[in-house]
Write a structure and sequence with these properties.
The chain has helices at 32-35, 44-73, 99-114, 130-151, 153-158, 162-178, 191-194, and strands at residues 3-11, 18-26, 77-78, 84-85. By secondary structure, the chain is mainly alpha-helical. The protein has a single domain (3-194), classed as MOB kinase activator (Butyryl-CoA Dehydrogenase, subunit A, domain 3), CATH 1.20.140. The strands form two sheets. Strands 1-2 form a two-stranded antiparallel ribbon. A two-stranded antiparallel ribbon has the order 3-4. The longest helix has 30 residues, at 44-73. It is globular. InterPro entries: MOB_kinase_act_fam, MOB_kinase_act_sf.
C-alpha cells in the first residue's frame, strides 16, 4: 500500500496568520474522488496551489528515477508514438527538445513561477488570471508522468513502481478534470489506464 502524508501552509482569508493542512494520500482508487475535494475551510486557489506543489515533487521523483535512461534513449519529449511535445516560452516559436532538456526547462520555469509573489501571493489575493497560469503548469507537469509511463514503462515495472505511478496519474488526471486544469486531449495518451477500474 502506498501511503503519503504531507502538509502545506495555507492563508486564512482576512488574516495574515497561516495554518497547516494535512492531507493523507492513501493508495485506494475509491478514495480519489474524496481526496480531490477542496476542504470546506480552504480557499480553492490555495488547494490548487498545494496540489501543484505535490505534482512538481512527485513528477520530479519519477523523472529523476528515469533520467539516466532518458538521457540515452529519448531524443524528443513524448508520451508514446504520435504524442510529441514541443517547448514554447511566450510567443517564441515552439521547439523540439530532448526529453531531459524539456523537463529541465519545465522545472526551472515552474520554480521561477512558484517564487513569484504576484502569481503565488502569501497574504494578497490571487491574480484574476491565476487559473490560466496554473493550467499550463499542470498540463506540462502531467506530461512528465505520461512520458515516464509510456516511454520508460519497462524500467518502472522492473523497479516495482508501476502501481505508485498509476496512482499518481489517476489522481492528478481526476484532479485536473475536476478543476478544469486540462483539455481532454491532454489525457489521450493514457486513456486506457484511466478507463481501468
Amino acid at each position: 500500500m502506498f501511503n503519503k502524508t504531507t502538509s502545506t501552509i495555507v492563508r486564512e482569508p482576512g488574516h495574515e496568520t497561516v495554518k497547516n493542512i494535512e492531507i493523507d494520500y492513501t493508495f485506494s482508487e475509491s478514495q480519489i474522488d474524496q481526496q480531490i475535494q477542496c476542504p470546506k475551510d480552504t480557499d480553492i486557489n490555495d488547494f490548487i496551489s498545494f496540489n501543484l506543489c505535490e505534482l512538481v515533487e512527485d513528477s520530479q521523483s519519477f523523472f529523476l528515477f528515469v533520467k539516466g535512461q532518458c538521457k540515452t534513449e529519448c531524443d524528443t519529449m513524448c508520451a508514446g508514438q504520435g504524442n510529441k511535445y514541443l517547448w514554447q516560452v511566450g510567443q517564441d516559436k515552439p521547439q523540439e527538445l530532448k526529453a531531459v532538456d524539456y523537463c529541465n526547462c519545465l522545472y526551472d520555469q515552474i520554480t521561477e513561477n512558484l517564487q513569484n509573489p504576484k502569481l503565488f501571493p502569501i497574504t494578497e489575493p490571487y491574480p484574476k488570471d491565476f487559473l490560466k497560469y496554473v493550467k499550463q503548469m499542470f498540463r506540462r507537469l502531467f506530461r512528465v508522468f505520461m512520458h515516464c509511463y509510456c516511454s520508460h514503462f519497462d524500467l518502472i515495472y522492473k523497479s516495482d513502481m508501476e502501481q505508485k505511478l498509476q496512482y499518481q496519474i489517476k489522481y492528478f488526471a481526476e484532479f485536473m478534470k475536476k478543476y478544469q486544469l486540462c483539455e481532454i486531449e491532454d489525457l489521450e495518451p493514457i486513456k486506457h489506464l484511466l478507463d481501468q477500474k
